[in-house]
Amino acid sequence: MNVLGIETSCDETGIAIYHGGRGLLAHRVHSQITLHAGYGGVVPELASRDHIRKTLPLISAVLGESGLTGSDIDGVAYTSGPGLVGALLVGAAIGRSLAWAWQVPAIAVHHMEGHLLAPLLEGEAPTFPFIALLVSGGHTQLVAVEHIGHYRLLGESLDDAAGEAFDKTAKLMGLAYPGGPALAKLAEQGDPQRFQFPRPMTDRPGLDFSFSGLKTFALNTLHSGLQQEQDAEGVARLKADIARAFEDAVVDTLVIKCRRAVRQTGNKNLILAGGVSANRRLRERIRKVMEEEGGRAWYPRPELCTDNGAMIAYAGWQRLQAGQSETMQFGARPRWPMEELPAL
Length: 344
Ligand code: KG4
Ligand code: ZN
Known about the structure:
Blueprint: E1 2-7, E2 12-19, E3 23-31, H1 33-37, H2 44-66, E4 75-81, H3 85-102, E5 106-110, H4 111-117, E6 130-135, E7 140-147, E8 150-156, H5 162-172, H6 179-187, H7 212-228, H8 232-265, E9 269-273, H9 280-292, E10 296-298, H10 310-321
Parallel strand pairs: 1-4, 4-5, 6-9, 9-10
Antiparallel strand pairs: 1-2, 2-3, 6-7, 7-8
Helix pairs in contact: 2-3, 4-10, 5-6, 5-7, 5-8, 6-8, 7-8, 8-9
The structure holds 5'-O-[(R)-(carboxyoxy)(hydroxy)phosphoryl]adenosine and zinc ion.
The site of zinc ion (ZN) has 6 residues, from α4.
């Protein structure tokens, strides 16, 4: 079964084709970074318009790369939510229309389920059940995954998501959008000893997170540091040291909660997914901690951590081959709790 996957929930147009036996046949991502950079963040209307421009040409490109035509496609999967409503509607309208024209089933995919299943696209993949740490620009969640569609939320962020905290902190330090990867890069040059940031909510029981205080901590540290620095070199060092302290605090907090979730559930398989799981230090620390716990960490290659069509094609394939599909009704679900998904 060849499934076309369409991802347009935010600022990346991701298109892919997944085949049940042969795996991922082609995947392409068009990033809107340059479009939004001048505004310091995603402008929803510009995002929607760009998805309109890019989706069909990218579909032609992945079909060509796979050596397929529309008549070889057996199902269409599109991201229906959560995300920006206008952006989602582009993928939903194009995906549903193509499925109708090709007379194949369509399936509305939950963006976070896509992220959660992305590690299963890799050669070496975990088996169910496992724990998932989902860390993206909009979500930070620890989920107990029994099987596809059997999700139990163990904990989540009460305010900013981990990626959002990265992006906001990067912005206040004067780094260009999208800030997360830029902040992580700057942290590479930082001194881990100079500043000690708090590890929010780790001193109390539970698996929830709170990251918004860290950005304020970073801002205060920056302001007081700037009063002491005399030259450009000192300011550059100050920013790198803050970036390092911030990254260490986020990574440490995530790692502490993952260890707690593993001990609480007794499940020693942990998958890491979502944009922030591309973070090198987070990947390394989670891998080590899971080894210490006698278990194992799994994560996709970095290009499948951030938004892409491959994870949508794969999640859609899983549900289509189990017999699920959409009616002719379609729509965007900007807010869509993952627990509402039907079990497989
Ligand atoms: O999953 P994703 O591509 O989009 C959403 O579903 O939100 O995640 C994007 C988020 C952004 O906040 C971005 O700054 C963050 O992931 N991110 C990173 C890194 N790469 C992407 N954060 C920290 N370190 C990175 N290397
Ligand atoms: Zn995402």
